[in-house]
């Protein structure tokens, strides 16, 4: 505790140097400029977490710097007794780094705490300032800082559940912390459900973030938890174990009719039997007696909650006929004697339910059933009968089907439901909405997706039998069984399937085969079939039949794949897709008109037994450079078209990519060599083959003119033929200057100007000289000068030079570097040279670097090389490919 008090006092003393001074919150003159945050701003000010300016304003729209962020986070942790134990001399330990990056004195203590506690890394500090000027913090970096601080108390997950529309913009490193703060209710999306990770955070937004974090750390909720076990004794009495968020375990006895089960907002009621293990719940007690349970997942999966889901065909004489929403088949269910009915979330009688259906013939009666199976004597023989024990009805103006797209036309879509060979056709309603996954699209986008390969559909039909909403994806809308274990089938009939795996036999009962999708192997692919065909396939097999089985979250079987060979899933034909690439990020590949991410291999064009496997072709030429492919895919100024082949695990095994459009600034054009190099707005440079004589569509210049040095720097737009060659060059913004030239070579010195190897000339540089590099993030000419003068760094330079020998722009590629290893952090490696300078360089992918360095886990690099003298090897594009 003594340490915490000392650090808190130190932070308060340093805070006096901030350009802010504490004023009464009620005196903030501009408090109403952010009405959405006004009460929160007052709250954090009263708690002493943040203060105003000398003129009595709060300035909620102002950006918050990285140094201010760390001090604010420190204040929240200090005032909630949440500081970690760190060495008391932390500031002394990191003083050199803090001084090197001009961290303000008033924030040095809190920043040193961040470094010592793991909230910050040395690489993070490089973002704090540029040329001694404080940088504004981005939203994702702020969330990472708060998330790392909270990770001491809350579980960090992979972050795959983040549902923001712009989740693809969130860095792989930040994703788990965005997920954590979202789960804790500290952050949320904007009105368009975007997180805006790269936007700067304002003081008003920071006030909300601090206030929610403070409340979380001081007011732990004790009434929320997760159901971990359910035991059903007699159909109406249940023993339920709930693990609370504070770690406490509650054991409850629940009886239908005695305890009310509601959805999150209390608008719908459920039977106790609807509870499932894994449900997130909030408990309400009347004294020591449990009285209510709220299901916190607003829309729990219907497939997981109910045994059967679909639409009512008829309800008469104690018999309910249901059309499965998965397969379209109709199945008969008898009503259990104690069957309970719910209509729109309210408990009703069977008579009321039947009357509501009869009085609303213009609506669809959607139903979810809880069932049980018992043996009954029929005509002298025992027969298993499935009874409905609870019926949940909702009257809707529309219904939803899923299936595989057969044809997508301008005005309609044709599709096959699972387990059915018949095509259904739905015309589009005038207000039909189209989606690819969760991304809004239009009919043209969906047609492109359907034309690009096998596609699945989730379609909502209105009361006029027209499509009101269509969601399409390369993925099925059912749980995937193909990634499950491979079983041996010991028995299969309409009531059950018996499976064997690793010496253990398990039996799975079917509530109804009509709600299960069946697939059988025909030596080429799996075919969607009805149950009777699947049963016949098993009965007539001469050898062992193997199966993979898909289960939903409620443990019910949703799909079964049968094969007479255990290797069928490896032979299942690879999918082929084509289209414009949206992005490549962290080894993931995605098309624009797509909802699926594919995984890239670590290497392509691998030689094996004299043959090339996993070919990667860019612009018609075989290459192994994923770096070039990634830069093309992520550049806003080019359109990259690709045709891929992916295996059953969605790993891309073949790629043929080519540009279809591009724009940027001309760097160099060699007509004789048929090569043109251009630079995009993000600084990326691409060298592309051209046809012999590209068109220009202009009388003002020819391809020969563009080849002259005077056109260097001009804005250009490029068109391509089917082979990926440039066949048209259009100059959009001429920078014609006969004096501009390009020089290149190894940098020898920069002290009195840029001097290149093999040249006696020295070129002038100043603060306006632009710096770009694929090797590092530094854009300051002064940092580049230091690197060139540092004997441990070798740099290759390509520069644009004016007719007065002034360097206008530099493209720098690091060739060699050595020094003391500092750390590796998410694609960046840092070293300290003999001169005491610390530099950070980009690396190849994590998997590729780990393989080159001989470690099985990239995180082990810090253990292997920490404090060691190392040499960095760079590939042709200028990124680190090996540490030795």
Helical percentage = 10-25%
Structural class: alpha+beta
Outline type: globular
Largest sheet: 11 strands, mixed
Number of strands: 51
Round the Cα radius of gyration to an integer and report it: 33 Å
Percent in strands? 35-45%
* Rounded mean pLDDT score: 82
Could you give the distance between the termini? 44 Å
- Give the helix tally: 19
Task: Describe the protein's architecture and organization.
The chain is 19% helix and 40% strand. With 884 residues, it is α+β, with helices and mostly antiparallel strands. Strands 29, 30, 31, 34, 35, 36, 37, 38, 39, 40 and 41 form an eleven-stranded mixed sheet that branches. Strand 20 and strand 21 form a beta hairpin. Helix 3 packs across helix 5, helix 3 (66-79) packs parallel to helix 7 (139-150) and helix 7 (139-150) crosses helix 8. It is globular. The two termini are 44 Å apart. Residues 1-26 and 298-303 have low confidence and may be disordered.
């Amino acid at each position: 505790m003594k340490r915490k008090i000392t650090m808190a006092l130190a932070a308060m003393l340093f805070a006096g140097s901030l350009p802010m001074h504490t004023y009464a919150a009620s005196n903030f003159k501009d408090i109403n400029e952010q009405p959405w945050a006004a009460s929160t701003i007052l709250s954090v000010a009263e708690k002493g977490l943040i203060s105003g300016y000398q003129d009595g304003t709060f300035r909620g729209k102002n950006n918050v710097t990285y140094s201010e962020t760390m001090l604010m986070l420190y204040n929240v942790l200090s005032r909630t007794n949440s500081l970690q134990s760190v060495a008391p001399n932390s500031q002394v330990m990191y003083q050199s780094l803090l001084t090197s990056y001009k961290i303000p004195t008033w924030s040095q203590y809190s920043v040193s705490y961040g470094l010592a506690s793991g909230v910050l890394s040395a690489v993070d500090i490089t973002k704090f300032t540029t040329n001694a000027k404080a940088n504004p913090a981005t939203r994702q970096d702020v969330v990472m800082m708060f998330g790392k601080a909270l990770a001491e108390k809350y579980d960090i997950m992979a972050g795959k559940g983040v549902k923001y529309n712009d989740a693809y913009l969130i860095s792989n490193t930040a994703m788990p912390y965005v997920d954590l703060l979202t789960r804790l209710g500290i952050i949320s999306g904007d009105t368009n459900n975007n997180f805006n990770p790269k936007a700067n955070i304002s003081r008003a937004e920071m006030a909300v973030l601090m206030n929610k974090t403070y409340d979380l750390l001081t007011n732990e909720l004790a009434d929320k938890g997760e159901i971990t076990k359910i035991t059903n004794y007699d159909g109406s009495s249940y023993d339920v174990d709930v693990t609370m968020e504070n770690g406490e375990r509650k054991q409850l006895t629940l009886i239908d009719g005695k305890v009310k089960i509601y959805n999150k907002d209390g608008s719908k009621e459920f039977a106790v039997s609807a509870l499932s293990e894994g449900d997130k719940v909030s408990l309400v007690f009347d004294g020591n007696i449990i009285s209510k349970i709220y299901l916190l997942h607003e829309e729990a999966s219907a497939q997981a909650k109910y045994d059967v889901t679909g639409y009512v065909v008829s309800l008469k004489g104690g018999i309910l006929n249901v059309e499965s929403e998965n397969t379209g088949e109709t199945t008969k269910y008898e009503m259990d004697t104690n069957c309970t009915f719910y209509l729109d979330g309210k408990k009703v009688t069977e008579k009321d339910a039947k009357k509501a259906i009869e009085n609303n013939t213009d609506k669809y009666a959607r139903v979810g059933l809880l069932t049980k199976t018992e043996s009954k004597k029929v005509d002298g023989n025992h027969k298993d009968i499935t009874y409905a024990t609870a019926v949940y009805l909702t009257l809707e103006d529309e219904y939803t089907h899923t299936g595989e797209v057969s044809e997508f036309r301008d005005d309609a879509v044709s599709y096959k439901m699972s387990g059915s060979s018949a095509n259904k056709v739905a015309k589009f309603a005038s207000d039909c909405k189209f989606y690819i996954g969760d991304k809004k699209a239009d009919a043209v986008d969906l047609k492109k997706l359907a034309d690009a390969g096998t596609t699945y559909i989730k379609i909502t039909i209105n009361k006029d039998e027209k499509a009101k909403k269509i969601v399409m994806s390369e993925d099925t809308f059912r749980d995937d069984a193909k990634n499950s274990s491979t079983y041996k089938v010991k028995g299969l009939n309409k009531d059950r399937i018996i499976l064997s795996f690793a010496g253990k036999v398990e039996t799975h009962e079917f509530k109804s085969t009509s709600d299960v999708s069946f697939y059988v192997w025909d030596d080429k692919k799996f075919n969607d079939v009805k149950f009777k065909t699947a049963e016949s396939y098993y009965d007539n097999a001469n050898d062992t039949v193997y199966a993979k089985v898909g289960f939903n979250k409620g443990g019910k079987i949703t799909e079964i794949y049968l094969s007479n060979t255990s290797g069928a899933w490896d032979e299942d034909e690879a999918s082929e897709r084509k289209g414009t690439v949206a992005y490549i990020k962290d080894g993931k590949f995605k098309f624009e008109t797509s909802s699926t991410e594919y995984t890239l291999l670590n290497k392509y064009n691998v030689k094996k037994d004299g043959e090339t496997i996993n070919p990667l072709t860019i612009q018609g030429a075989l290459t192994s450079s994923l770096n070039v492919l990634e830069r093309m895919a992520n550049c806003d100024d080019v359109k990259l078209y690709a045709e891929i082949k992916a295996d059953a695990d969605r790993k891309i095994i073949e790629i043929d990519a080519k540009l279809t459009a591009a724009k940027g600034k001309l760097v160099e054009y060699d007509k004789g060599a048929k090569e043109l190099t251009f630079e995009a707005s993000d600084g990326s440079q691409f060298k592309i083959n051209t046809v012999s004589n590209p068109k220009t569509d202009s009388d003002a210049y020819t391809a020969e003119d563009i080849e002259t040095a005077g056109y260097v720097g001009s804005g250009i737009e490029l068109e391509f033929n089917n082979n990926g060659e440039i066949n048209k060059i259009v100059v959009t913004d001429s920078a014609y200057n006969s004096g501009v030239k390009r020089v290149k070579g190894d940098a020898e010195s920069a002290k009195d100007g840029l001097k290149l190897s093999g040249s006696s000339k020295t070129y002038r540089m100043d603060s306006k000289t632009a710096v770009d590099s694929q090797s590092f993030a530094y854009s300051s000419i002064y940092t580049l000068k230091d690197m060139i003068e540092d004997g441990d760094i070798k740099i290759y330079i390509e520069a644009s030079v004016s007719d007065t020998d002034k360097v206008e722009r530099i493209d720098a590629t690091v060739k060699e570097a050595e020094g003391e290893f500092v750390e590796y952090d998410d694609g960046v490696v840092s070293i300290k040279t003999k001169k005491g300078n610390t530099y950070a360089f980009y690396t190849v992918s994590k998997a590729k670097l780990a393989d080159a360095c001989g470690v099985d886990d990239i995180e082990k690099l810090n253990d292997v090389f920490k404090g060691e003298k190392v040499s960095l090897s760079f590939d042709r594009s200028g990124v680190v490919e090996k540490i030795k």
